[in-house]
Design brief:
The protein has eleven helices and ten strands. The two termini are 29 Å apart. The chain has two domains: 158 residues, Rossmann fold, CATH 3.40.50.300; 71 residues, no CATH class. The relative contact order is 0.17. By secondary structure, the protein is an alpha/beta fold. Keywords: ATP-binding, Nucleotide-binding, Transport. This is ABC transporter ATP-binding protein. GO terms for molecular function: ATP binding; ATP hydrolysis activity. InterPro entries: AAA+_ATPase (IPR003593), ABC_transporter-like_ATP-bd (IPR003439), ABC_transporter-like_CS (IPR017871), P-loop_NTPase (IPR027417).
C-alpha cells in the first residue's frame, strides 16, 4: 500500500507544486493520476520512488516513510516505464531487461529464464527479439520492451508515466488492452499517469483528478461520472459524454 499523508511540495523559487495531498493507493490495483499539463500529476508519481521529494507531509510504502528506505534498493524494487522508453541504445533487448536483476545479483540462469518469460508476456517472441538493438524496434515494440524491463525483477509496484502517449492510436489501443490483460495475470500495484480521460477510464480501478497541484477528486470511473466534484471535473469529462461506451 502507498500512502500520501498531507503531502506538499514547494520549489526553491517559492512556487507551489503540490498542496496537501491525502491519498491511499491500494495493492494490486491500477491507480491513474490525470490532469492537464503542469497539474502536478507526474511530480506526485515521482515522489513514490523519490525522483522528487515532498517538502511537507509523508509518502509511505507499506507503512514506512520512503525517505527511510535505502534509495537505491527501493528503486530496484519499483518498476518504472516512461513515455520516452529510454532503452540503452548500445545494449540489446535482453541486456536492457537484465539490468535490475543483475544489480540484484540474480543468477544468470534465473535472468535468462525471466527474460524469456517477460518477452512472451508482452507479446514478443524471445528468439526473434532477444538479440535486437533498440534501433531495430518499432515504437510499440520498444514500449513493450520497456514494460518488460519495468517488470524484470518482479517488483510489487510499477510506475507508468504516460507510457503510450507518443504512439500511434492503433498501437496505443493495443497496448492499453494488453496492460489490462497483463494486470489480471500479475496483480501489481500500478500507478499510471495520463492526460487522456478515456485512457484513465479504460485502465483505472481508481482515478485521481489533479488540478494546480491539488487532488480534486478520486474514485472509480462510475463515481466520478455520476458525481463530479466541481466544474473542472465536469468539463474534463464532458467531451467524452457523447461516447457512451466508456460510461457503461
Amino acid at each position: 500500500m502507498i500512502e500520501f499523508i498531507n503531502v506538499g511540495m514547494t520549489y526553491p523559487n517559492g512556487n507551489v507544486g503540490l498542496k496537501n495531498i491525502n491519498l491511499t493507493i491500494n495493492e494490486s490495483e491500477i491507480t491513474v493520476f490525470i490532469g492537464l499539463s503542469g497539474s502536478g500529476k507526474t511530480t506526485l508519481l515521482k515522489m513514490i520512488n523519490r525522483l522528487e521529494d515532498n517538502t511537507t507531509g509523508e509518502v509511505k510504502i507499506n507503512g514506512k516513510n520512503v525517505k527511510d528506505y535505502n534509495i537505491h534498493k527501493m528503486r530496484w524494487d519499483i518498476g518504472y516505464a516512461l513515455q520516452q522508453v529510454a532503452l540503452f541504445p548500445h545494449m540489446t533487448v535482453e541486456e536492457n531487461i537484465a539490468i535490475v536483476p543483475e544489480l540484484k545479483k540474480w543468477k544468470k540462469e534465473k535472468i535468462d529464464t525471466r527474460i524469456n518469460e517477460l518477452l512472451n508476456m508482452v507479446g514478443l517472441e524471445p528468439k526473434k527479439y532477444r538479440k535486437r538493438n533498440p534501433s531495430e524496434l518499432s515504437g510499440g515494440e520498444a514500449q513493450r520492451v520497456g514494460i518488460a524491463r519495468a517488470l524484470a525483477a518482479d517488483p510489487k509496484i510499477i510506475l507508468m508515466d504516460e507510457p503510450f502517449s507518443a504512439l500511434d492510436p492503433i498501437t496505443r489501443a493495443n497496448l492499453q488492452e494488453d496492460v489490462k490483460k497483463l494486470q489480471k495475470q500479475i496483480h501489481k500495484t500500478i500507478v499510471f499517469v495520463t492526460h487522456d480521460i478515456e485512457e484513465a477510464f479504460l485502465l483505472g480501478d481508481k482515478i485521481c483528478i489533479i488540478q494546480d497541484g491539488e487532488l480534486i477528486q478520486s474514485g472509480t470511473k462510475h463515481e466520478i461520472i455520476s458525481n463530479p466534484k466541481n466544474d473542472f471535473v465536469k468539463k474534463f469529462i464532458a467531451f467524452k459524454k457523447k461516447e457512451g461506451e466508456i460510461y457503461e
